[in-house]
Amino acid sequence: MTTLFRILAVSGSTRAGSTNSAVLATAQAIAPEGAVVEVYDGLRSLPHFDPDDDRDPLPDAVADLRGQLKEADAVLFCTPEYAGALPGSFKNLLDWAVGSDAMGGKPVAWINVSSSVTGAAGAHESLRTVLGYLGTRIVEEACVHIPVPREAIGADGLVGDEAIRERVRAALTALATR
User: Fold this and answer.
1) Could you count the other beta carbons within 10 Å of the beta carbon of residue 173?
2) Where is the NADPH-dependent FMN reductase-like domain (predicted)?
3) What's the whole-number mean pLDDT along residues 98-109?
């Protein structure tokens, strides 16, 4: 029996039709041999972070998040930028991860899909900082900027452009082999 390398894919967007979420759904569909991508879908259900609630018993959504993070071999993020920083709901998810050992030493990376002039640099700079506090191991080779225009997303919610898909696959391979 072959052991698969499990990558948890976390979108920082709650928007329907998000290019960030579409890229992660595409990553799930095109995972390289030996890897499986599982998309986390609980962002909307997380309660607002409150240090007083960061104790047993944890809120169910938080326990689920931490369990999925702990079980993953690596984590791949894809987040938009709002007002020059991480979206609040996504930062909330990261805040809930701080109080656990679920991400300590874990390989992480991100795909930046922004096609804006700034390239969402503020969000990804903030993400790098927070991931440092979490004690993760950033896999630089897997942190890529792949601008994805909305028209690249098909009716099935996946990226159809083969050049983009190949770059996503290369990022997944780098994350799974480092």
Assistant:
1) 17
2) 6-146
3) 95
